[in-house]
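This section describes the prediction task in plain terms. A model, or a person checking by hand, is given the sequence of a single protein chain and must write out its three-dimensional structure as a string of tokens. No templates, partner chains or ligands are provided. The sample shown here is typical of the held-out split.
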Amino acid sequence: MDDTYILQYGSISGLPFQYARAARLAGLNSKNVIAVNRDFGELNRGLPFDASIAEPSDSRLTRMYKKARFFFGDVIPNTSLVHYYSDSLFRRYLDCGILSGLRRPMVISFAGTDVRLESSARRLNPYVYIPPYSAGEAKIKKKLELIGKYISFAATDFELGGYVEPYFEKVFYLPQPVNLEHFAFSPPDRNVRRPVVIHIPTNREVKGTADIEAAVERLKADGLDFEFRLLECNLTQEQVKRKIAGADIVANEIRTGSFGVFALEAMASGKPNISYLREDLKEKYPPELPIVSANPDTIYQVLKDLIRDADRRVEVGKAGRAYVEKYHPLATVGEELKRIYSECGLSVA
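The expected answer:
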């Protein structure tokens, strides 16, 4: 490796750190840097990163100074490509404009609410929840237009790609990486008499927690014998891993219309995962994707069927592990990153 590196800038549930690791496995010098050493909002999950620019105790002026020092003293002279995650270092994407002028390869990925256009989302998915802190459709479009002036390429999932395609020269599908060494394969015990269902709502409205709880209460009233565990959203990754290992069914999110890395981690552990997958997106994924799709209207019946059918739980759990092993290992994602970065202008040996 030479002295230059690929900067993975930002923190979306710790994913940029995993992408940096995946890139290194593919022979690319890469590191994840976040703006401030803290989690999102009130969360404190201990998500990993390689370096942070500022500390929470720093004043606004100090943070601005540290960002400028990092950008002009490190990013400009030392990066071979910058991969942004949702945000940039400076307001109005000033740093992207400077890097564009320097012909520095760039690519950007998104988180969800930052680019999910309400009119399109509701047309495609009647269950989607748009939180009140969303910037609003006009501002999102204006932001994407501004980003598209400087960055030609986006890399994201199939759902978000539909919103951002008009603003970029090319949008790549980027699979999420899973470190399989961290998730032991532990499929449900088909002989368990009282299955355990877990749900971890980082955002109750987005995940459809109220609908899941209502289905659980209805199932219990029907006499089904199972345990439901509503877990804290502030768990560390190690704690989450242990909770998944002790579950028979993972009820993830039933409103968004797609799935994230938590679903993949559950699948890597061999647990059947319930997430709502929009009908129009199903054909975009490999046919063996074993997501158990459920929305607020169907979660009762889907949960009921899985709780009653131990053989299906085991079958879906095994299929989930096989799917993640095939499409989402760090090394596999690293090679895909290498291909994407090459198309974005990075010189790859």
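For orientation: The chain has a mean pLDDT of 94.
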